[in-house]
Design brief:
heterodimer; A: alpha+beta; FAD/NAD(P)-binding domain; nine-stranded mixed β-sheet; about 40% helix; B: alpha/beta; Rossmann fold; 8 helices; about 20% strand; transferase (chain B); mitochondrion (chain B); S-adenosyl-L-methionine (chain B); magnesium (chain B); metal ion binding (chain B)
Chain lengths: ~500, ~280
């Protein structure tokens, strides 16, 4: 969703509207209505702006729960969803937009009947994690199978999945359920308030105006419309945070084999480099997906390299010292030769780093800026924010999409309670539980990932020693590690 | 959910006796045909403007409202034969700003809600607020009247499945008469549900309904343990005699930070819900 932010009328209201403000608001609205009113708006219980994973999950969940299936719901999405619907990539090609889904996200998606529509042969679970400090070499290993042998639970830590595979599965579920009025390929032109007539007073209801001319009045307007959320702007909710001065470089990679543990036991790797963490996450077969957080300059440099040199840089990122890596970044080309020479003189345990990268999928190398953002609140009168509209997190723990699913699960629970108890699902009082449940949890996770990023950005000094002691200590304490892994797969990933 | 009615405790009896003077005093007031206490009406007129303020003085009522539906659901679930799941008719007496009436009208199982209140100011607030939700149109009717002035139903179809008296009974001058007035509005097998802030609902029931009878049946000064059991039996007899059965009670406690929670046994000390079912024949 990328409607022009200028078109959005910021709501000149706090979270709570007193009667005198309401009066002023009505007058304001009336003058506005005479300008652009084009007939009565259609009335909906839920209007969801944004057809990404969070918005689609919300709609699938609303339609699949008996209590909320009677609600009149609409989806507004600026892109044409028919492309999302028919995802048709051959088995040897993968989207570079991948996310790690925690078991709790998968459980939720299964509960709303969407998981069975996701192409499972394109999803890869992993049972082991290797995380290490690129400066000191201190390491923490999470091996579910070893944990299982020691009496723990044997299940994947998380599942790697392409975002288009998820959105396509969710759309199929929504299509199968029916009942969602989908307005795709339509931009949000404006969000204002409704009118007051003899019978009804919609002066406090948000009305979404679409580029096609439709006007939708929403009992509850859900902003699943991404980091630049027009819904959030309408509600006058501030989003605060900072940019990391880092870009995430992504790519789909072909590996020498299907991993040291074969198809059955896949491993996720993450190495903390002073420029940011580099992660290699397993996809089905011999494929993996890369997320390399680095400075914008180095990210730009990586994107200019030939496939062979890019591959060499990725192999180097998991093997060579930060000093060697820095040198290779200064080369305009020739990294392939440089790596094969330097790798001979570097000691590393082959089994504890990813297998060699042998290919990079054409057109899959891309980058995006990393930032931290957190909205002041997730709710307003007749407004709720979910997913990236509410928060943007550093990708180092792969939690962004999972946080969005957690938001949706909580909002659905809140709406369900309101519906079954006759509450108006749009009023803040009904939404309070959602904000209370999610805000603190997300804030904690945002903070943990932010601190981890900052901690590992340090190249020398006492903190390097301390963080290494920390990692080694955690690694040698079985019960603590088990606890951390269970936290990680239940939605709160600490390391 | 709601537990079956518990025996009245000694504490309740004490409260009952302490509360007695007020009721005695009420007996000597000029009898009008209405259950409405004029002082109470003016009190609620003053509250009208803040009724829907989510952070105002009615916040606790707003927070309690979902439990009213839980309680009614519990009443329905306790029936030997299940209650209808659609077209339920509600009569909400003393509806105030309409917190319960609106919520009842939104439930898919509801056919219609008639909500009455004697205060015109409060009712104006209720009507104004209901206009903000187009979904309530055709399901919710507000009437500025007392129960005495409301025309009595002429057929079962005109009677109500649920007659609600939330936070009302403690404002009524003659609760026993009032309940008798309500009875013809309830369908056979329908429910009167109520809640009160009073010390105990039992203090009301025993004072105004049972005590007036008990005073004759049970000699004073014989309130010992054995007699409580007798009293319980008497109450059951009384309910049956007047055509009511299945009394249910649910005690709730407000816990800051958590909200209203059902706490078994708390009906003896705090807020409660109370429901009785009209005999089917």
């Amino acid at each position: 969703m990328k409607p022009s932010p200028a078109a959005v009328q910021p709501r000149q209201l706090g979270n709570y509207i007193c009667s005198s403000c309401t009066h002023r608001l009505r007058r304001h609205r009336r003058s506005y209505a005479t300008i652009s009113s084009s007939g009565k708006p259609s009335i909906y219980d839920v209007v969801c702006v944004g057809g990404g994973p969070a918005g689609l999950s919300l709609l699938a969940a609303l339609r699949s729960s008996p209590a909320t299936a009677n609600l009149k719901v609409a989806l507004v999405e600026s892109q044409d969803l028919s492309k999302t619907r028919d995802l048709s990539l051959p088995p040897n090609r993968f989207s570079n937009r991948c996310s790690s889904l925690t078991p709790s996200s998968v459980r939720f998606l299964d509960g709303i009947g969407a998981w069975k529509h996701v192409k499972r042969e394109r999803v890869q679970g992993y049972t082991e994690m290797q995380v290490w400090d690129g400066v000191s070499g201190a390491r923490i290993e999470f091996d579910w199978n070893a944990e299982q042998a020691a009496g723990g639970e044997g299940r994947p830590i998380a599942f790697m999945n392409e975002n288009p595979n998820l959105t396509s599965g969710l759309l199929k579920r929504i299509d199968a359920l029916g009942g969602v009025e989908i307005m795709d390929g339509e931009r949000v032109e404006n969000i204002g308030f409704g009118e007051e007539s003899e019978e009804v007073d919609l002066s406090m209801w948000p009305v979404v105006e679409l580029s096609g001319g439709k006007r939708l009045a929403a009992r509850l307007l859900v902003g699943a419309d991404g980091a630049n959320s027009p819904v959030r702007a309408f509600a006058g909710i501030e989003s605060r945070g900072w940019d990391y001065e880092r870009h995430g470089v992504v790519a789909t990679l072909e590996m020498k084999g299907s991993g040291w543990g074969g198809e059955e036991f896949k491993t996720a790797y993450q190495r903390f480099l002073p420029t940011g963490p580099v992660a290699m996450l397993p996809l089905p077969g011999n494929y993996s997906t890369l997320v390399w957080s680095t400075t914008p300059a180095l990210a730009a440099h990586l994107k200019t390299l030939s496939p062979m040199d890019f591959i060499a840089m990725v192999n180097a990122a998991f093997r060579l010292s930060p000093v060697d890596l820095a040198y290779m970044h200064t080369q305009a080309s020739g990294q392939a030769d440089e790596f094969s020479w330097r790798a001979q003189h570097t000691e590393f345990d082959m089994q504890r780093v990813p297998q060699q990268v042998v290919g990079v999928q054409e057109g899959s190398v891309a980058s995006f800026p990393l930032k931290l953002r957190h909205a002041d609140t997730y709710i307003g009168e007749r407004v709720a924010l979910v997913g990236d509209a509410a928060h943007t997190i550093h990708p180092l723990a792969g939690q962004g999409l999972n946080q969005g699913q957690g938001d949706v699960e909580s909002l659905i629970k809140t709406i369900n309670y309101a519906v079954t108890h006759g509450q108006d699902i749009g009023v803040q009082m009904s939404l309070e539980q959602y904000n209370a449940e999610r805000y603190a949890a997300n804030n904690m996770l945002l903070g943990v990932c932010d601190k981890l990023h900052k901690l590992y950005a340090i190249e020398s000094g006492p903190l390097v020693g301390l963080r290494s002691i920390g990692l080694r200590a955690v690694n040698s304490l079985g019960p603590l590690k088990r606890f951390m892994v269970s936290q990680a797969s239940d939605g709160v990933k600490i390391l | 959910m709601a537990a079956p009615l518990r025996p009245t405790s000694l504490r309740n009896l004490n409260l009952l006796l302490r509360a007695a003077p007020r009721f005695v005093q009420n007996q000597f007031r000029a009898h009008s045909t209405s259950s409405v206490n004029p002082e109470e009406v003016s009190h609620f007129n003053a509250l009208a403007s803040t009724w829907w303020d989510p952070h105002g003085s009615s916040r606790l009522l707003h927070l309690m409202n979902p439990l009213r539906h839980d309680f009614i659901r519990g009443c329905h679930a306790s029936q030997p034969r299940p209650a209808p799941t659609s077209n339920l008719r509600y009569l909400d007496i003393g509806c105030g700003g309409g917190i319960f009436a609106e919520s009842a009208a939104r439930l898919p199982s509801t056919g219609s809600v008639t909500a009455i209140d004697p205060s015109p100011e409060v009712l104006a607030v209720a009507k104004g607020h209901a206009r903000r939700d187009p979904g309530l149109q055709g399901k919710l009717t507000y009437l500025n009247t007392s129960i005495e002035e409301l025309p009595q139903p002429k057929s079962i179809e005109e009677q109500y499945d649920v007659l609600s008296l939330f936070e009302v009974i403690e404002h009524i001058t003659h609760p026993a008469d009032f309940l008798d007035t309500c009875a013809p509005f309830v369908k056979p097998g329908g429910w009167i549900v109520m809640s009160t802030i009073a010390r105990t609902w039992a203090s009301w029931l025993t004072t105004k309904v049972v005590a007036e009878d008990i005073a004759r049946i049970v000699p004073r000064g014989t309130h010992d343990w054995d007699k409580y059991i007798n009293e319980e039996e008497l109450r059951g007899y009384f309910l049956r005699e007047r055509g009511w059965n299945s009394p249910r009670v649910m005690g709730v406690v407000y816990i800051p930070g958590l909200g209203w929670k059902e706490v078994a046994g708390s009906e003896r000390v705090g807020n409660y819900f109370f429901g009785i079912r009209k005999d089917e024949n």
